[in-house]
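Re: Re: token formats

Sure, here are both.
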Amino acid sequence: MKKITIIGAGFAALTAVRKLRARDPKAEITIIGRRAEFVYLPSLIWIPSGLRQPEDMVVPLDNFFRRMRVKFHPGEATGLKEGGRVVLTDTGEVENDGLIIASGGRFIKKLPGIEHAITPCEGVAAGVKIRDRLREMQGGTIAIGFSGNPNEPSAMRGGPMFEFLFGLHTQLVREGRREHFRLVFFNPMAEPGKRLGDKAVKGLLAAMAARGIENHLGHKITGFAADKVMTEGGDIPAELILFMPGMTGNIWFDNTELPRSPGGLLKADQFCRVEGWDKVYVAGDSGSFPGPDWMPKQAHMADRQAASAAANLLAELNGQEPSHTFRVELMCIMDTLDSGMFIWRTPDMNVMLPPLSWMHGLKRLYEWGYLRRLS
């Protein structure tokens, strides 16, 4: 019986489970994670308005693991030995015949004073903090921005920050408080959202202008204080700061000899196989993959990589050569709380639709369908 271990319990990990089980009903699958639960991070954008409560986003995985016949090992990975055949955790060792690393990324929090900014995608607690701070405010400036990993162009997650920006505008309008607030979007790039495509950049900037949202673009961010964002182009006074830094690899990677990209992620080939390692694969935010520099760090892409990793790992375990690659594709609905902008980019095309009310409903429908599969 094949023994397969997956590190992580996010989008890539759960997709890997489904694909592995569909291809091999008898494989022994073990997941390593801190808790047997899944957090649907895309819904964080709806916590400040009350459209979602924290408990709506957290799904216990006991039923899913039971249906998929998965063993759960509670703990955090701390290293590897025997060429990846043994995963070291803070609660013991886990042996395997094949390994998929889907433990996500880590935000680079090196800027001075970054503790004064809220990083939304760190989890539910961050969304709740934004909600509570916003309720306390009678007015003032809200500064929202993101940056990247200078050594890894793809290791950034800017989409949710645009959604928070537009969502907070819509929320404040609904509450009759918009005139008391100044919304400022800041970014070290002169053309933020460039990875979404040229059409998207123009569309996003036009959407900001239409909503009275100010921009502070093209200036390196130097730090934060309790009441301001500091950049080489001047300070932005702000009572509330939301900031998404660039991403790098997990700390536990440092305790291994796994090959790293310049940005600190795991180097993978087109088959999602960690370079130079036997039957060790990576999917999602943990990996650095060959392809265009606009390759997104998003759930859609993580799912595609996980499907390839699962198929190729099983092929190797069956004595075959890996052959499954993944299509690089950026696809998202950028939500504004009352509408959504559809963005689709492939190596051959770039599509952006203007805000449409039914797109908001479609995003909520997708959330319902995804979580239903885990219940």
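Second one below.
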Amino acid sequence: MPGVEISKSRLINQHIAGSTFSTPEEVVAWMGAMQAQDYGMAKWGIGVRLPGATDAVIEAAMDEGKILRTHVLRPTWHLVAAEDLRWLMDLTGPRLRGSLNANNKRLGLTERVFGKCNKIIASALSERHMTRKELMAVLQQNKIATDDLRSSHIMFRAEIDGVVCSGVRAGKENSYALFDERVRPSKIKDRNDAVGELFKRYISSHGPATLHDFVWWSGLNLGDARMGLEMNKAGIECINLDGKTWWFAGGGVQGGLKKKTVHLLPAFDEYMVSYKDRSASLHDDHFSNAISSNGIFRPIVVVDGKVVGVWRRSLVKGRVVVVPEYFEGVVVPLGAAVKKALGGYGRFLGMEVFWEDMII
């Protein structure tokens, strides 16, 4: 299939280069799950895929429980549509639960201790949403140690056990709520059906991608990836490029974008973090500039599907300024595409945003 560009196809399938969605939860459901350890940047990750959306609109969807932030898939924070969380947790929870067994043993966190913690936490949250600090104080009052990373392990387990999920924001702090309060009962999917559904979501939204990309993103194994492919073979196509097989939903590849595009994508964005092989969008020479040695994914400047630099937000003379740091040899003129990107970010923040070169 000549002329196919993996990176540009992903821009379209991830709804970065144009979107048909009208609500934040539609974006998250389409993506399957969106990595979210940086809360503010995670909201912008939705905003960049939802034209006209503001930080406040996405915050409201979170507070209303339409989108939830919890640990699922790989053991890190993700945003998930509330309607999907129950079956996703059933699918990935057993593996996540076992991933911390060694550390739990070292910390003295036995099944009996976790059971006691879950009951105490559930009782406390039956009254109101609470921050981690508040919940840890309650546990300490019940003679349960929460130091030396125990608090993280206790709350992680409460999430996986379906006791808690994210609640209404408490000022600048995240809070927890009862899982059953925020997640409606639903029919449990058979494991094979859940794998098939997750594979379909990933390939539709993130494709073209390899089976190993899906394994990296989902935390499942290669056998699961192959089963997901088999279950969706009627709607999945592939191309062979650079000695690899790239899978995508039918019609989900593009030969190019009609106009030059510039996107300011957030830290840990799915456009970069959700693939094991990132070479389609990021040249190996610049890998360490965009992704640190300890796995920190920086906000990136993407031009026509290629990562050409990183960016940060700053205040200059009382104004919000995007400060780009281009890779060696890269120049991005201040043109219509840049102004469009700044306009989108400005609407999201509810204030005017300037490119560094615009401030004298």
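Residues 149 and 293 are 23 Å apart (CA to CA). The longest helix spans residues 82-99.
- S.
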